[in-house]
Amino acid sequence: MDIKDIIKPENKVYSKTSLMTDNALSYCPGCGHGTAHRIVMEVIEEMGIAHDTIGVAPVGCSVLAYDFMDIDMTQAAHGRAPAVATGIKRLWPDKFVFTYQGDGDLAAIGTAETIHACNRGENIVIIFVNNGIYGMTGGQMAPTTLGGMKSSTSPFGRDIGTMGNPIKMTELVANLPGVYFASRQAVHKPSNVRKAKKAIRQAFENQKEKKGLSIVEIVSNCNSGWKMAPVQSNIWMEENMFPYYPLGDIKVDDVILGK
Amino acid sequence: MSELKLMKGNEAVAEAAIRAGADAYFGYPITPQSEVLEYLMSEQPEKRTGMIVLQAESEVAAINMVYGAAGTGKRVMTSSSSPGISLKQEGISYIAGAELPCLIVNVVRGGPGLGTIQPSQADYFQSTKGGGHGDYRLIVLAPASVQEMSDFVKLGFELAFKYRNPVLMLSDGVIGQMMEKVELFDQQPRLDYFDPAWTTTGKTDDRGRNIITSLDLDPYLMEKHNQMLQAKYRKIEELEVRVEEIMIEDAEYIFVAYGSSARISQKAVELARAKGIKAGLLRPKTLFPFPKRIISELADRVKGFLSVEMSAGQMVEDVRLAVNGKVWVEHFGRYGGVVHSPNEVLDALENLIEKK
Q1: CB–CB of A51 and B205 under 8 A?
Q2: Could you give the 3-state DSSP secondary structure of residue B14?
Q3: Domains (ranges, CATH) in chain A?
Q4: Which of A240, B7, B33, B70 is least enclosed by beta carbons within 10 angstroms?
């Protein structure tokens, strides 16, 4: 087949969503954020709701998410995204509002905002990217850092006795009646990307049906912060992160699974 | 038809918010301002105008709800008292940086720390010099009556949208708790236009995406943004100074006082005049912008200024800067929750006249 045949429009099998800008991603090569951004934007494009969607960007690696997501967005202070989203959603109940937050943002400094937005059942979507570390500030210990895991502020490994346990935030908020849907996914393999996208689609469909809060956690790698090569970091994630943060739906249609 | 009512200052703020066509109030209880939230909850403004009222989990959350909603162009507000306002400072800095309009009411109580629930004016520095991190200013309105607690809500929203800048109403526990008659203004409509140039209401085909942010990692662009903010503050200083002058024409000594201290100082003016002392009162209604030029011009013809504040002396620094050494400027005030009496204020003036 000639190259001209390959690039014929009818042979096109994939194109970038129009809701991702052409700005070069600021994420490290190998990081999962880019894929997570893309599937959120694909869902918004496929649902045809871009003109009615307002995103809330956090503080963390995805602080500049609005440079890549071609929709209206508000930058929130560290941890405050669920409160900012609440303010928007309460005044525009028919618009789609989502937050995109990391684990330091959502599970440490923003714990109160997260829990209370969940408890009020704010009709929003929370995309929670958990890579077990503070990536942007250079690899410090996060609330989700695994026991024994080394970081720049736990250089000898996280000591559970003095530094506390890694927090399972999605399971925690799933117990609140305001949370309608909670799921944990990954984006390091095509099959996982498909499942994660399906969960994100479900979350936005729930918002459309005014069901309450939906949270989709994406367990991701931080090859730079973990001081690993990208492939190695994904293997480490499968072997260490997934056993502690098991993938799959946690709460579906207001029912906690396995209870 | 305007309506005459006997109300608490805090209730007047709440009623005025509904009447000013506010879209939302986000708050958290704290003495001595909880009546704002209580009044709004019992009044059910959602039924009257569609206004949303939400009790947040903290002052931090409340100001961030304001930030999110203000970014969509809505007319929104919060209120609190000193310790709660301290918690809001992070959000206020972001709102100022992102240039969003909103109204914040501080019914000041004594500090520092948990302090007391009694009235104070010790948050002047925090209110007029920025308060949170970074170079920014709030427009600061200082009501001295229940009437102004109502009127300044409307004025506050007007100025907030005129300059896309947060407006702080700096009240105190006296004005918030006392009851006076208030002439309520007529119901204003809620907003139905949201400027497509900046509001985040969803990106439509006819415009690029709107982003509400205070972040720029390029320091030169950030400097430019700061210069733009400073230019706005200079314009506000030029155009928005508001004062009340009482018996100032022939005055030799000027009390400078705002809020409930102005009420007390007004009585001290009467007492002084009865004793043959030519005293007058300059009452700033705006603390930022501060009436620098008016004070500077007065300094050319009076003998001295006494800044009367329920603090250890904060506004007195701005009076001194405006007077610039031309005549004496001193401070008098009780603080930590104690309210001075008109006689104490008069005594302070008489002592100074004798000493100087």
Answers
A1: yes
A2: helix
A3: 29-256 (3.40.50.970)
A4: A240
Cα A40 to Cα A99: distance, rounded to the nearest angstrom: 11
Asked if B71 lies within 8 A of A88 by C-beta distance, the reply is yes
The dihedral of CA B314, B319, B322, B324: what is its sign? negative
ipTM of the prediction greater than 0.85, yes or no: yes
Give pLDDT tens digits for A11-35: 888 889 999 999 999 999 999 999 9
Output the pLDDT for position A148.
97
Judged by CB atoms closer than 8 Å, whether chains meet at A51 and B202 is answered as yes
**In the structure encoding, which two tokens stand for residue B71, read together?**
């970014």
Nearest chain A Cα distance for residue B213, angstroms: 5
Whether B74 and A116 lie within 8 Å, measured CB to CB: no
Domains (ranges, CATH) in chain B?
Answer: 3-200+230-237 (3.40.50.970), 243-355 (3.40.50.920)
- For B96-115, what is each residue's pLDDT tens digit? 999 999 999 999 999 999 99
B106 forms beta bridges with: B80, B170
Q: In chain B, where do the E strands start and end?
A: 3-8, 24-27, 52-55, 76-80, 102-108, 139-141, 166-172, 179-184, 211-212, 243-246, 253-256, 279-284, 286-288, 304-308, 328-332
* Phi and psi angles of residue B253, each rounded to the nearest 5 degrees, phi first: -125, 135
In this prediction, residue A259 carries a pLDDT of 63
How far is residue A195's CA from residue A201's CA, in Å, rounded to a whole number? 10
Residue among B171, B176, B139 at smallest CA distance from B155: B139
- Pick from B66, B94, B200: CB nearest A77: B94
